[in-house]
Write a structure and sequence with these properties.
10 helices, alpha/beta, Rossmann fold, 6-stranded parallel beta sheet, about 210 residues
Length: about 210
């Protein structure tokens, strides 16, 4: 029985390229194509794919948001990110969303076929560069960029610009205690002990 594959990428040429790579292999059947995250959601029930290949950046819902939305309701489908990005931020977000694989778009046809078969069979599969990123993240967990809330990001930027807690509280119409609470939460998330270290670390992690 052929592995049913749904391709999702907002670039037609990219979809055509991967369709060409898979189309000549009797192990696969391309059951649908989507150019946006919303299309994937709409097609998922009618096409009934075994494996969905997703770009991260697509109009509307991103590939990661699609995985997060469908993972709970379609537990038997395997979701694979196909991306040009090999930065730690994207890889770790994909894993957190529940991706079963992360492949770079530079992948060749033979490796793509091997990856899809392995993932369909229940394994995880990552491009070598991605595997190195995951291994480094396990060895250095603090290297992953902490996720701040929108309000924390706003306050962090104001702190970095030299504004005092009182000034920030007045501008955001918050109490001093609330601003201080946000600051303490940021210190904990980033893993530092004072504001100077917070700003330095935020710059290193490209949070500012």
């Amino acid at each position: 029985m052929k592995i049913r594959v749904l391709l999702a990428d907002d670039h037609t040429l990219i979809r055509e390229g991967f369709r060409s790579l898979l189309g000549g292999n009797d192990a696969f059947e391309i059951v649908g194509e989507a150019s946006s995250g919303a299309e994937v959601v709409n097609l998922i029930n009618t096409t009934q794919p075994d494996v969905v290949l997703l770009d991260i950046h697509m109009p509307g819902l991103t590939g990661l948001e699609v995985i997060e939305r469908l993972r709970k309701t379609h537990s038997t489908i395997r979701f694979v990110i196909l991306s040009m990005h090999e930065e730690r931020e994207y890889v770790m977000k994909a894993l957190k969303a529940g991706a079963d694989g992360y492949l770079l778009k530079s992948i060749g046809g033979q490796e793509l076929a091997t990856a899809i078969k392995a993932i369909h069979g229940g394994s995880k599969y990552f491009s070598p560069q991605v595997t190195n990123i995951i291994a480094d993240s396990v060895a250095n967990p603090t290297a992953e960029t902490p996720e701040l809330t929108p309000r924390e990001k706003e306050i962090l930027a104001m702190v970095a610009s030299g504004q005092s807690t009182k000034q920030i509280a007045d501008k955001l119409d918050l109490s001093v205690r609330t601003v201080e609470s946000h600051r303490i939460n940021m210190l904990k998330k980033v893993g530092v002990s004072n504001t100077a270290e917070l700003i330095k670390k935020a710059i290193e992690l490209k949070m500012l």
